[in-house]
Amino acid sequence: MEQMIRESKKREALGRMKKESIRNLCLGIVGIAGLLLLWDMVARFGIIPKNLIVSPWEVVKTLAIKMSDTKPEGSLLLAHITSSLIVALSGYALALLIGIPLGLLMGWYKAIDRLIGPVFEVLRPVPPIAWIPFTIIFLGIGLEAKAVIIFLSAFIPCLINSYSGIKLTNQVYVNVAATCGASRWETFCRVGIPSAMPMVFAGMRISLGNAWSTLVAAEMLAANKGLGYMILMGRTYGRVDLIMSGMVMIGILGIIFNAVFDRVERFVLRWRVTR
Amino acid sequence: MEGCKRDKVEVNHLCKSFGDLEVLKDCSFRIKDGDFVCVVGPTGCGKTTFLNLLTCLTEPTSGEILLDGERADPRKHNIAFVFQEASAFPWLTVEQNLRFGLEIKKKPKEYIDEQVNRIMKLMGLEAYRDSFPGELSVSTEQKVVIGRAFAMSPDLLLMDEPYGQMDVKVRFYLEDEVIRLWKELGSTVVFITHNTEEAVYLAEKVLVLSQKPTGVKDTVEVNLPRPRDIYSEEFIAIRNRITDEIKWW
Question: Fewest beta carbons within 10 Å, which of A250, B1, B84, B193?
């Protein structure tokens, strides 16, 4: 009986969620359409001078041309996207690989927190772009240097959220593991980490945004490809359409990343259901 | 029969203080193997501290707790605890929750499979095998927690007001479930409650605790047949006796 009620409640909840997501999608489309309309009007009626803004349709045209034309900055759009993805994702992956385990360990083991916590607090307020001169000196201007800049912007939210997430572990769960005879390490792996996952994912999401938005700054490091480089070249050549095309492309890729991230999060945290 | 049973738990001169606050003072008692003991006492008398000491979650200030003649140690002994709060791991399915304690104890896979299937069947949880606790009703979630504790075939099962948050109907239902499991598996159970009716309904023996600093004020044997009739004269007489003993007003 309870199983049937549960199934029916589940179906109802799924129906509600479906309706809600269709409504949200419609609202999102309306919002974006409104923005495009506003942007088009601002460009069309010269509210902002034409040498400072182009219409959305001109951006679409430029993007289409850049699919097959390397002029003026020397690369196709796909090459810029690939280059940016490699830079952003390597920095982001490095931030996840170092930030999450370190945050979890700091949150669980007081000795590690006391050892690394003060160093982290000193480095935390330094903005990622302030590291650019140092990265050039130590790592040159290649992929490693750019990835490090991205890493620095993505690392901090990963670490802080993992740290806070594991600190918030419900003591009852820890006690259950302790009374079963679990060691501190076993409790960390089997209770601390899974219970911190919602916060870890929130940190990963913030980090992804940071990584993507630091891309332009990272590609200031004497790049010859990448969306950030395309924007900088647009400025050099006085091509507003190129600048805005780069910006729009960064935005579109950000949306795609977010959608993929949502799917992964929903799968990993599928246990987060409410009665 | 009672005389044949060996001592499972021996508590000798147990004391616990938090700074100047003396919570437990010279508690001594024995629990026989396979007993169902309820612990009652006035609100705030230190019942939970008492259980935390038994599970070694807290160190006593002095005194000792022996399990099968050895100092109690969750790594060595099979101790299971059912807490007041919902404690099914939300990220594990019902089956994974039941396996948890056995996996920590590094039991062989075949044994774990067999034991988990047995408990699922006993508790009617088969339909929820792959469900997460968040998808279950509060009473079913508590059944998972109780099942997880019994799945370990614990030397000692400690339950800290596990039905405190539930309505009367669910409480009666789960009380019967616990009795059924206890009879089936023969574990030794220590059940903390502030509800004297629940204590008399469940226990073979009721330990009555005094006000702080807490000690064992009385031990009441409940030799009533099961299932117990809560309206019978004998039942009411024992319940009233215990209620009188825990009165502090």
Answer: B1
